[in-house]
Design a protein that fits this description.
- There is one protein chain.
- With 188 residues, the chain is mainly beta.
- It has a single domain, classed as Beta Barrel (Porin), CATH 2.40.160.20.
- Helices cover 12% and strands 70% of the residues.
- Strands 1-2-3-4-5-6-7-8 form an eight-stranded antiparallel β-barrel.
- Strand 7 and strand 8 form a beta hairpin.
- The radius of gyration is 18 Å and the shape is elongated.
- The two termini are 29 Å apart.
Length: 188
């Protein structure tokens, strides 16, 4: 169901904005996520890999709006209990950014976004689902291979804070973490 909603949001984004020469961009890539929650990394590991989609619209000169979606799923074992567990986190972002040197081969960018993060974890016969609002802020580089095709590298921090009930007690959790991303994109 979430994938259908995400597809509808991306299509709506493209159809709702007026078409204009080279004002839109879209990219797909992968991010290495270093989760910000120590309890999460103890069970699922230090690094998770996350596919990522982004679409944007250049508003004025070097400023743009963007919409993004990414997720990851991890499997682990609960320490001491040796119980297998699965967790997934997904992130929907809506933000704004600034790019330098528009029209040049190498561009720098700064971006920030509001974030809606979700967690679903199955452990010890229970399923926990949580969602929370947060933020993402980062910087990156775009290198244009051709006039409308670019490679991008970015580093950002994306996080949302909430609490979850585990073993009859409330625990503070952080969804997200440090993201190192590489992507291939198109401007149209």
């Amino acid at each position: 169901m979430k994938k259908i909603i995400m597809t509808v949001l991306f299509l709506s984004f493209f159809l709702s904005l007026p078409a204009a020469g080279e004002r839109f961009f879209a990219s797909a890539g992968v991010a290495a996520v270093l989760p910000g929650d120590k309890n999460f990394t103890d069970i699922y590991g230090q690094v998770q890999f996350s596919p990522e989609l982004r679409a944007g619209y250049n508003l004025h000169e070097n400023f743009y709006l963007w919409l993004g979606y990414s997720f990851f799923t991890a499997k682990g074992v609960v320490p001491k209990l040796e119980d297998k567990t699965t967790a997934s986190q997904n992130f929907l972002t809506l933000g704004a950014g600034w790019e330098s040197r528009r029209g040049r081969r190498l561009q720098a960018e700064l971006f920030a976004a509001l974030l809606m993060a979700g967690l679903r974890e199955k452990a010890m016969g229970e399923t926990v689902s949580k969602s929370a609002f947060g933020f993402e802020a980062g910087t990156g580089l775009r290198y244009f291979l051709r006039e409308k095709v670019f490679l991008g590298l970015a580093v950002s921090y994306a996080a949302a804070w909430t609490t979850a009930r585990f073993a009859e007690k409330e625990t503070a959790i952080i969804l997200g973490g440090l993201r190192l991303c590489g992507r291939l994109g198109f401007r149209f």
